[in-house]
Amino acid sequence: MVRVGVQADLPEELLKLFPKNGIELVRLPKDLRETVEVEFWVLPFNRFEAEGQMPFVQGVKVMQSAMAGVDWVLPWRRDGMILCDGRGIHDVSTSEWVMTAILASLKWLPVYAKAQEEKKWVGDWKLRNPFVTERTHTRGRYRVLSEELWGRTVLIVGYGSIGAATEEKLKVFGVKKVIRVARSARTEPVEVHAISELDALLPQADVVVLLLPLTAETQGMFGRKRLERLQEGALLVNAARGPIVVTEDLTAVLAEGKIRAALDVTDPEPLPDGHPLWSAPNCLITPHIAGLTPNFMERAFGFIGKQMERYLKGEPLENVVGDAGY
User: Fold this and answer.
1) Residues 103, 118: Cα–Cα separation, whole Å
2) Is pLDDT at 270 greater than 50 in this prediction?
3) For residue 130, how many other CB atoms are within 10 A of its CB?
4) How far apart are the C-alpha atoms of 219 and 18, rounded to whole Å?
5) Do the beta carbons of residue 283 and residue 277 sit within 8 Å?
6) For residue 139, what pLDDT is reported?
7) Which strands form 23-28's sheet, in the order they lie side by side?
8) Annotated catalytic residue: which of 77, 288, 298, 309?
């Protein structure tokens, strides 16, 4: 019988997705302070809760996360533990958030939401979007009150399963080109550029989507120099991890009106009250919710249930994470 540790408040309908035989469920309270023997540990979503429980959870052979990124687990994972991530589970929800963020930014929805709160009708251009230059905000006698994704170039940095799902959705909107970047180059099944080519590729993109894991190599990857390589008015979309972007540099570049951003992740996180990024112009922020939907929960625990079945049968587990975090 394999003892499986789960968070204490996990709904019964999700537990039904686990194997019917061969496991014993152990509910772990958030404030766990007593030693508990668990062989297969389903990590809670809250990283601080998981880290606090770690000293009291003994006998762990497998740690299974539902999150695509597990950089937060690596500092306190013990030797010999198998760590598995949730790669593939977030493809639908996160790629949908990316598309929503892109379209909301190009259609200037934050501008119009603010105008609605202030009860202002802005169709006559009483309120203009500050990132749009005089060169781009008029077409003859017509005022441009939103933009199109059609015909744009999108650069996806960190081309994995979420990147591929995002590309499929981008095709529907008639983007001119998708440029793919990953740790190493490849040509099959599609052309993917190496991260070493990033600086040359950045100026080509109207939209840059970050889907990278957080590692020693990617932390601070987008500082001032890289941000300034983006073309004027380009949109930076971060659905990866906050520390991949240097917050102070992003805030400064946004304040200068050079680019715009849509962020589901920040550094620090949560973003504290009064932080300058809250009031940075041309910046849409959501509180790290891109992957979290009711459908995601069903996919996540359905996958975790299959992992348990593999473990019970002695079969290889999927999504095993190496020491680098991916």
Assistant:
1) 22
2) yes
3) 11
4) 36
5) yes
6) 44
7) 23-28, 2-7, 40-42, 62-64, 82-84
8) 288
Q: What is the rounded CA–CA span in Å between residue 57 and residue 80? A: 14
- The answer to whether residues 210 and 234 touch, using CB atoms and an 8 Å cutoff, is no
The active-site residue, picked from 90, 152, 241, 299, is: 241
Query: If we measure between CA atoms, which residue out of 245, 252, 246, 254 comes closest to residue 281?
Result: 254
Known active-site residue 77: no
For residues 83 and 65, the answer to whether their CB atoms sit within 8 Å is yes
**Helix 91-106 and helix 294-313, axial crossing angle in degrees, nearest 10:** 150
User: Which residue from 258, 302, 305, 304 is spatially nearest to 281, judged by alpha carbons?
Assistant: 258
Choice among 49, 51, 228, 269 that is catalytic: 269
pLDDT exceeds 90 at position 42: yes
Q: Is 269 helix (H, G, I), strand (E, B) or coil?
A: coil
What pLDDT, on a 0 to 100 scale, did the predictor assign at position 138?
Answer: 44
The string of pLDDT tens digits covering residues 208-221 is: 999 999 989 999 99
Residue 136's pLDDT is 45
Q: State the distance between the two ends of the chain, measured CA to CA, in whole angstroms.
A: 30
> Can 241 be counted among the known catalytic residues?
yes
Strand order in the sheet with 260-263: 193-194, 177-182, 153-157, 207-210, 235-238, 260-263, 283-285
DSSP β-bridge partners for residue 7: 28
Specify the pairing of strand 40-42 against strand 36-37.
unpaired
Q: Which of 98, 97, 99, 43 is nearest to 72 (CA)?
A: 43
Q: Over 90: is that where the pLDDT of 294 sits? A: no
- Over range 222-246, report the average pLDDT: 97
Rg (CA), the chain: 22
Is there a contact between 18 and 302 (Cβ–Cβ < 8 Å)?
Answer: no
d(CA 291, CA 239): 9
| Contact present, 310 and 317 (Cβ < 8 Å) | yes
Place of tokens 């008639």: 174
Q: Average pLDDT over the chain, rounded to whole?
A: 90
- In this predicted structure, what is the pLDDT of residue 142? 45
Rounded distance between C-alpha atoms, residue 78 and residue 155, angstroms: 37
